[in-house]
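User: Can you fold this complex?
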Amino acid sequence: MSSIDASFKSLFLLQDRTRTGKAAGIKFNYFVLSATFYKMKLLFFVAAVANLFLLLPNFQQIIADLDSDRRALLDFADAVPHIRKLNWNANVPICSSWVGIICNKDGTRVREIHLPGIGLNGLFPAKTIGKLDGLRVLSLRSNHLTGSLPSDILSIPSLQSINLQHNNFSGDVPPTLSPQLSVVDLSFNSFTGSVPSTVKNLKRLSTLNLQFNSFSGGVPNLDLPRLKSLNLSHNLLNGSIPFSLQKFPISSFIGNSHLCGPPLTSCSTLSPSPSPSIDNFSPTISGRHNASHSKKLNSGAIIAIAIGGCSILLLLILVISFFCRKKKDRGISVTKAKASSGGKNENLKSEDFGSGVQGAEKNKLIFFEGCSHSFDLEDLLRASAEVLGKGSYGTAYKAVLDEATVVVVKRLREVEVGKKEFEQQMEILDRIGRHPNIVPVRAYYYSKDEKLLVWEYMPAGSLSAALHGNRDTGRTPLDWDSRLKISLGAANGIAYIHSEGGAKFIHGNIKSSNILLNQDLDGRVSDFGLSPLMNSYAVKYRGTGYRAPEVIETQKITQKSDVYSFGVVLLEMLTGKSPIQSSGYNDVVDLPRWVRSVVREEWTAEVFDVELTKYPNIEEELVQMLQIAFACVAELPDMRPNMDDVVRMIEDIQQSKLENRPSSEDNMSKESKVQTPE
Ligand SMILES: Nc1ncnc2c1ncn2[C@@H]1O[C@H](COP(=O)(O)OP(=O)(O)OP(=O)(O)O)[C@@H](O)[C@H]1O
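Assistant: Here's the predicted assembly.
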């Protein structure tokens, strides 16, 4: 029996023992396992006694250290209410039995605490966990901890990794930081104040995630050689981005309306904001606060500028009218035309997206705030373009303006709403598109006959292409870790959409071709906000293969129908099978039904993508993900989890991945394995 079979049975058969009648097999395995377990226990006992004699001189000290760790943890558990029960009990061995605790190799100190999503509630008491002076990893993510973070936590001298994301912490981050820190994730809290300047001393720091807080002030100049991942997005930071951090992508900084400089817009285009007061923050690069700006110009200079300006304007008018005449009957020049359906070439002349652009409105490409206006409609019409595919809302083109500017232009068809409603919807798209897991819209164009949307181009394509593209031609398959990362990113994006508009915001077209990937393989959701613009014909044909049963019946989408569609995406990712066969919309596979039938009848690993079976030690994660997918595709909408729950469940898989699959960097013993809270 393969290990995947075993995991499958233990997780599914145990749940469904009476129905399947296969409990005997499990019992047999259980007795065999327990016998082995007792033998191992005996061996451990002998080894432990031998150890004890060897280490006798240090024994008193060891007991005292572990005792103080135990006391500190019990104080924490006593002070912080938690929904899911912890089995922390002074009478049972802390290193081998306590939920969420990992000790060092010889069981003398607590090294790691992992308590994700167990409903920890209220204030984080000082002088509890802060007393664990051998602690290296602290993960209390996805709980409900509030108030300020005690100053004795981040300063634990041995602390290497802290994960407090998705709590409700507030107040300033204490400035004393352990020099050993390499991972700091405080994202999705309500921290205020400045980013501590002491971060710049963390020479081992590789990940700093502070997104979605209320940090203010300037960005510290972090010249840290090991820093690989930085996210300061969606805070209240201001000033210019220090040179040392300009190598990070836009997504590291977006959502700070007073932050400027590369990779964001140049500082001169923003309205002035207070410059950072802390002395180690970088000076404004573009010279926005340069004293020369305030100097008055003399009259000679004014006349020279006026004459120069007029001549440039005249020249521009001449050039534009020349191009307008040349392009009267010509829209975009399509260099390569490959429709996604069947990959056949098409004559796209009749569909050129410039054809409906009205002369008087040619330059009315409306850019969203924060997007650089590095091109206009003329540039777009002139750009060489490639058809990426025809979707239910229109045709998508990849337009290359120059080496650095590549965008996707979607020519919307069947738009039903008027200009005002269109513009209102664009404002929503702008707001939602600032989340790092949503593909941002950069600009739009609206005229009577033509509606265009300009999106940021996602260079690594879609999840659909990564899963199903060129399977037979020796491409590198998408590995499990990437699939896990993409699914978490996409789930975060959808959860954000759902949380932003109460029950009002629904994606309505979740599918693998609408989950796009950037170079780092972060999953980003695209096409949000289009269905309210479209007529019912387009809406009817969206998401075929991913639609929830109630949507097929009523055509009514809800947040729970998004959850269903996301569940189908998860099944697609696990099985490697697409719910739409290559022959197109008419050939739809009911993936949830297929997976259920395989799992129920055969109890084998056959359900998983063969490309995944090559990776060792992931079977538990696959099964956990399959359970999440099953929950999402429940027939009754009320039985499905909401997207926040889905995010947490996928985060749990990621966490168990860290715990059960030792990374090369981690030289710590994993002998005492973490137990997931019940
Ligand atoms: N911003 C983008 N960057 C890269 N590829 C994109 C981008 N937007 C869309 N695509 C790809 O272009 C193709 C066509 O996309 P489009 O959204 O028009 O159709 P679709 O996703 O197949 O269907 P639907 O309109 O129902 O969403 C898809 O393969 C999609 O993955």
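The first strand starts at residue 101 and ends at 103. Residues 340, 388-389, 391-393, 396, 408, 410, 439, 455, 457-458, 461-462, 509, 513-514, 516, 526-527, 542 surround adenosine-5'-triphosphate (CB under 6 Å).
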